[in-house]
Design a protein that fits this description.
The protein is globular and about 65 Å long. It has twelve helices and eleven strands. The longest helix has 23 residues, at about 305-330. By secondary structure, the chain is an alpha/beta fold. The strands form two sheets. The chain has a six-stranded mixed sheet with strand order 8-7-9-6-5-10, sandwiched between helices. Strands 3-2-1-4-11 form a five-stranded parallel sheet, sandwiched between helices. Helix 1 crosses helix 12 (about 305-330), helix 3 (about 70-80) crosses helix 4 and helix 7 packs across helix 8 (about 210-225).
Length: about 325
């Protein structure tokens, strides 16, 4: 069976984008850069003090000696002038490969960035928010994991988007609604089919009532108000969201229950635990965390990722960049 990431790789190959990989000191990144280049997934730029002969077809930039540093530093001062950033401070920031990589995206020298193999999520996100900022209309940055469970009859042939499993700890109702809307938009963009969003809880349709279930119900109401055409329902227990027979009992008449493909967890505890159970016990493919709400594609990696995981995220970042370009020219 063709997996989600196989499809994404094929899409990336049809219209190659330029993706920067800042972590050239990481062997997994080097292996992934070679594979992505050999397979024609993207035009790859790797940052670091590396022998370019080891990476045929890959553009290698030593970000600490690059001739572009002067231009980037001047522009970075302008971007951060309200924070009082000096030119010397800008040069110091550009010594950090993540800041240099994000500036490449800002300046149009790369279409997206994939990082995080040896950096924490906060380290990846900080320069993205400081330099690229949030996308128009986005109030927060969130994330999702693509999960595909082998031989699973639920979701979209076993494929789901789980959100937010990597970023927002305890979102309020407005934040939870924003996560749902962003993830639905990501599903539509990447999958090409209609999202069916379940707002998850330990309760279905008021079977339990407390502040936690009320928050999920309020988030669902906000989604309906902001995106009335979006198929979204809650609060729903996981089994009611994905299993038709359970949905018929616990949430009769729901337009989503029993067929959800986008699962929005009430907090980061639930989301992170849920995706890892699906990955490890369900033997699922797990790609992410994929960031949403940033003005240009910057994606994080788990520090436990493999080279193959990085290749998949390169492809996904490239497709996001392509979709963003297409939306701007329409």
């Amino acid at each position: 069976m063709s997996t989600f990431i196989d499809t994404i790789i094929r899409l990336a190959q049809t219209n190659k984008q330029t993706i920067v990989l800042p972590e050239g000191n990481d062997e997994r990144t080097i292996v992934a850069a070679r594979e992505a280049t050999q397979r024609g997934i993207a035009n790859i730029v790797v940052l670091g003090d590396i022998d370019a002969s080891e990476l045929p077809g890959v553009k290698v930039i030593n970000h600490k000696t690059s001739p572009e540093r002067d231009r980037y530093a001047q522009d970075l001062v302008e971007i951060r002038k309200k924070k009082g950033l000096t030119l010397d401070e800008a040069y110091a920031l550009l010594d950090n490969e993540l800041y240099y990589g994000v500036m490449m995206v800002k300046e149009g020298d790369a279409d997206g960035m994939t990082s995080g193999a040896c950096h924490a999520t906060g380290d990846v996100l900080r320069p993205a928010l400081q330099i690229l900022k949030t996308a128009p209309g986005a109030s927060i940055v969130s994330s999702f994991f693509e999960i595909t469970i082998p031989a699973c009859p639920y979701g979209e042939n076993g494929t789901f988007f789980f959100a937010d499993c990597g970023l927002n700890t305890y979102p309020d109702a407005q934040g939870l609604a924003e996560i749902a809307i962003q993830t639905a938009q990501s599903w539509k963009s990447l999958m090409g089919t209609d999202p069916r969003v379940a707002m998850l809880s330990y309760s279905s349709y008021g079977s339990a009532k407390d502040d936690h279930t009320q928050l999920v119900r309020e988030a669902t109401r906000i989604v309906h108000e902001r995106a009335p055409q979006l198929l979204c329902d809650g609060e729903l227990q996981f089994d009611a969201a994905v299993v038709p027979s359970v949905a018929a009992s616990k949430a009769p008449g729901s337009p989503v229950a029993g067929s959800a493909n986008v699962l929005v967890f009430p907090n980061l505890d639930a989301g992170n635990i849920g995706y890892k159970i699906a990955q490890r016990l369900g033997m699922g493919e797990a790609i992410g965390p994929v960031l949403q709400g940033v003005a240009a594609p910057v994606n994080d990696l788990s520090r436990g990722c493999s080279a193959s995981d990085i290749v998949g995220m390169i492809a996904l970042t490239a497709v996001q960049a392509r979709k963003l370009f297409e939306s701007k020219v329409q």
